[in-house]
Amino acid sequence: MRYDFSWGFSFSGGLHIRVECLWRLLVSERVVLTSEDHAHQFGLPAPVDCVGEIRRCVEGVPITRATVRARTVDMSLDFSEAATLEVIATSTGYEAWVLSGQGVLIVGQPGYE
Asked: What domain count does the chain have?
């Protein structure tokens, strides 16, 4: 889901990630989509619909691995062999992402131990 200045990703089990920075989707280790692409036409027949494209690539595909780099809080979610969603922190002053769910609240804030 696209908000004014952030993105929301919902997963089974009631987990939700609100992303306040750059994200990109990799397929076969190639960047195929980024948060910066949304609503731009780039000479295509229609503007890029990031929500629709993400759903097309990973909806229903299980997350097989999730990693967070300790010092940068960059996050990587592997959707089986289908794709990888990378969340890349772009500010040291604001949280990059917030993971929430039933009894869970984790804030990805770069620059803190």
From this structure: 1
